Amino acid sequence: MMRKVVMTLAFALALTGVRAQTENSKSFNKWSIDLGAGVNKPQRPFSDGYSTNTISPWTGDLGVRYMLNNKFGLKADFGYNSFTSKGSSIDFDSKYYRVDLQAVANLGRIMNFETWTNTLGLLGHAGFGYAQLRNDNYKGADEIGNFIAGVTGQIKLSNRVALTGDFSTILNASQDRTFDGAYRPGNRGFSGIVFNGTVGLNIYLGKNEKHADWIVTENNGNADISGLENKVADLEAQIKNIPAPKELVIEKQVNNPQLTNDELIKRMINDKYYSVYFDFNKTTPIDNSTAAIDVVLNYLRRNPSANLDLVGYADQVGKAEYNEKLSNIRATNVKTIFEKAGIASSRLNVIANGADTTIQKDSEEARRLARRVTFIVK
Predict the structure, then answer these.
(1) Of the four, 13, 92, 191, 306, which is 20 to 30 A from 347 by CA?
(2) DSSP label at 285?
(3) CATH code for position 65
């Protein structure tokens, strides 16, 4: 009976820490207003003798974006282009208006930009819409279907604003008139093409601190717990091998508080069942690590001759030198907690192990388990 209680408590503690990291990662803003202004180049179709400058001014874009998570979202936007003649061209003045619904992919998060920068981002977008081409040479408007695709570079200025630079390509279908206004019957396919380049801003909306563009989260809340399950199985085997007299001592502990089970606690500490976990790129333990710290702290208080190694780890995201420094700071911060609780510094030894290469690098769920400090009682 006591075996099951001990294993259940240890397993629940580890799972609680993993679950907390997942839940805390979901607090981010999802809405933004995307503004841009810049230049364009209509490539085709044109009538003979008509053309624009290589780069023509007067392009604008206004969008509202909603991110489903930190990697994918949707954007509705309105765009405006002005097409005018260059010096050697016959005069013309056309206006192009469009409305599009686009899918958005946060390429910066997909490609793990956070491993080397938290300031630069990259969005990809593509979608379909409706457009009108208007010219003073004819009444009404040429109604067009369009496909748009592009990439948007980002520079984070604050948690509320990012500077952007976008390059987009627009393909027009069923464009019956050239950009200079001439009529071209039977032009039904994707014959029109426009290139747009803009600079602008992402303005982030919401009550949370950060927007989805810049938050690092896990794919879902289903943590990879296979490693924990294996450890529980090992613990069960170890407990079964404890001689019968010690088992009786464990059972008596329930009814006699004066009896301790420090041997079992030491074994569990050294086998890493009590670990302190950290969020990505953070050096302060998550709140749910308090229980593990309390277990180790109480053991040290009951055993004043015992010393403790604090072994810091990071996940494999980032450079080795940075991860070694990060693991050292994590272990040092936990050491400080013990010192403030009255444990002499001479009993505490910090070991920086850097990235934990035993845990799968490509699994975000598994990397949660790598960001930790473990203990070795001596």
Answers:
(1) 13
(2) B
(3) 2.40.160.20
